[in-house]
């Protein structure tokens, strides 16, 4: 599989990229032109106590964010993926693929796993159909016919949720390492080998996160924009987190877990509740938290690639983000219960800094939203120009990062995505906080025909 390589840009792509860049440049120019108005408002506000306090808080928050970014850069520079080990040293592993309404894509997922450069006798592949309503089971049977004893397939009597399917897989697993792969994801030939190598000779390693890229980035604009965001989230943020052994979330698309670490918390994970209700989302972040709590390290393997399908429609996208943010709120609470204890022998300062930054983003969601609405009503032109300037500055960081490690032309998708997020998805975090107790996967519908 060589789908990591990207095709050339189309005319529509160039139109979007150029338009987004021109809009941001116009915003920067407006800020320059409107500088007297910005200064007048600033001087007027500084005459009042609340205005001075707000300005002071703004400066402090800016300093904190810049300091955090520099800290992450320092950790990123330190990061090095673990080199792949020989066949003899590779542990036995069980790959668990839960599937629900994925259609033919689950067949492609299972075939990519079977084609892995990993000793056949050391891999057990289990796929569980979680009560699908489409032809997922047919394609799983098709994969079974082709792969024979290398693959075991099972059906849940009814749709119970991804956590239940994974639980069943964990219970049947015989490998020393458990690997979870989403049924809409394709792995490279060396992915499994690279993913499990950190466990060899490192007793502290409890879990490893894979490197997630977008599979359907040629199908629609949203996936294409998100690909740059994914690269920054994984290859920068998780690389930095890995340097202190504290990747905050092992993604459902691709993750590996030490068997002992999973079995130590499996029942607690399966029976997890929030506000008195069973938890049916965020199983990946929950498992990560429970493994960190045991004192294990959670690492990231930059060289363990997986390509995964992401929503192509706005409605499906915001539902996915709501689910992620609700999980983030819940698991921040859980992590807070142990992060400020001596939960592992090594330094706990790094994990605490990461958690506090997570909480800062949550806590500021409502004040920032309120200030934004006030600014829009009172000074719409100044708001628009200032917002575009901010987008240009912070998205340029992603552009620079992507261009440095991949290619320049694709990197510019950070600009339209940042504009898209700022003006159409800004409400996600405040809404997710307010509805953190709600259950439901939100996006588990019938798959589109491939």
In whole angstroms, how far apart are the ends? 18 Å
Average pLDDT figure: 93
**Helix and strand composition category:** alpha/beta
Share of residues in helices: 55-70%
What are the low-pLDDT stretches, counting only 5+ consecutive residues below 50?
1-6
Main sheet makeup: 8 strands, mixed
CATH topology of the domain at 93-356: Spore Coat Polysaccharide Biosynthesis Protein SpsA, Chain A
**Succession of helices and strands:** HHHEHEHEHEEHEHEHEEHEHHHHHHH
- CATH-defined architecture of the domain at 93-356: Alpha-Beta Complex
C-alpha geometry:
globular
Strand content: 5-15%
CATH top level of the domain at 93-356?
Alpha Beta
CATH superfamily caption of the domain at 93-356: Spore Coat Polysaccharide Biosynthesis Protein SpsA, Chain A
Radius of gyration: 23 Å
Strand order of the largest sheet: 3-2-1-4-7-6-10-5
The count of helical stretches stands at: 17
Q: Number of DSSP strands? A: 10
Pfam family, one: Glyco_tranf_2_3
InterPro entries: Nucleotide-diphossugar_trans
Protein name: Glycosyltransferase
EC number: 2.4.-.-
Characterise this structure.
The chain is an alpha/beta fold. It has a domain at 93-356: Spore Coat Polysaccharide Biosynthesis Protein SpsA, Chain A. The protein has 17 helices and 10 strands. The strands form 2 sheets. Strands 3-2-1-4-7-6-10-5 form an 8-stranded mixed β-sheet, sandwiched between helices. It has a two-stranded antiparallel ribbon with strand order 8-9. Strand 2, helix 5 and strand 3 (151-155) form a beta-alpha-beta unit. Helix 1 (11-33) packs across helix 14, helix 3 (49-78) crosses helix 8 (221-242) and helix 14 (380-405) packs antiparallel against helix 16 (414-424). It starts with 10 loop residues before the first helix and ends in a 16-residue tail after the last helix. Its main location: membrane.
